[in-house]
Design goal:
The chain contains two helices and five strands, in the order αβββαββ. Strands 1-2-3-4-5 form a five-stranded mixed sheet, sandwiched between helices. The longest helix is centred in the N-terminal third of the chain and has 22 residues. The termini are far apart.
């Protein structure tokens, strides 16, 4: 099943879910422990929160189709998005009362083919 078979919004949502699942699988394969998915607060949403050893990793997952009409998945991580993820991560840390833990911000960029198949997955540790 491709990602464009229903409305554009349905396809985008399905692609986002598939990208987050692919990212979580990739990170788990590297030994990360996924501790939260789609954590939300009034500031924003954290796609994935994981532990890489003792480091708490906030992972922004971005996906695009291979056509590149709207740029690459990596290009979708704008300075504004980075600032929002950082602010949301700060709220997450405050809620958990985590003050001394090492943190890192990774990006997982997922590209899908026109038929909806995974074409590329790029993991950028410490991306911002």
């Amino acid at each position: 099943m491709g990602f464009g078979e229903k409305s554009a919004g349905d396809g985008r949502r399905a692609r986002g879910i598939a990208a987050e699942s692919a990212a979580a699988g990739h990170l788990s394969g590297l030994g990360y422990r996924i501790i939260s998915r789609n954590w939300r607060c009034r500031i924003g949403e954290l796609d994935l929160v994981a532990l890489d050893g003792d480091t708490l990793v906030f992972v922004e997952v971005r996906s695009r189709r291979a056509s590149g009409r709207f740029g690459t998945a990596v290009e979708a991580v704008t300075p504004r998005k980075c600032a929002q993820v950082r602010a949301t991560a700060q709220a997450y840390l405050q809620r958990l009362r985590e003050r001394d833990r090492a943190v890192r911000f990774d990006v997982v960029a997922v590209t899908f083919s026109a038929t909806g198949e995974l074409a590329e997955l790029r993991h950028l540790p410490g991306a911002f």
